[in-house]
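Example 3.2
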Amino acid sequence: MVPWLALALVAGLQGPWSPNPAPLPAHTISARAQAVSPSALGQQALPVQCRRLPGPWRVCRLTIESLGRHWWLQVGRERWVLRADGRGGLTLESGPGPARPVQPLWQLDRSLCWDGHCIKGNFPLD
């Protein structure tokens, strides 16, 4: 299992933040992820800010159903569902249509985006 939390933690442990970070190898993420206990955080619902690029930031709610496996962002009436497959793959489901593969990408404003769906604020990825 490759928890999404570990991705951010590894990014922070690699040195200074960079607007164009190099991709992290899955084995590096996995090794560091083992140090993060899934039960340490439990299920949470946190107020954060969200936006779909290039739109404005809005207050939304991040709910972590299963750490490293399943979480979602409630943005008004819209829900963005993210799921990890345990092998490094991540999918996003938003609106009509099937879930699609996405990659996390840090932005210059230190927000985290998945295919133009962005989040920032005080949440476990920071």
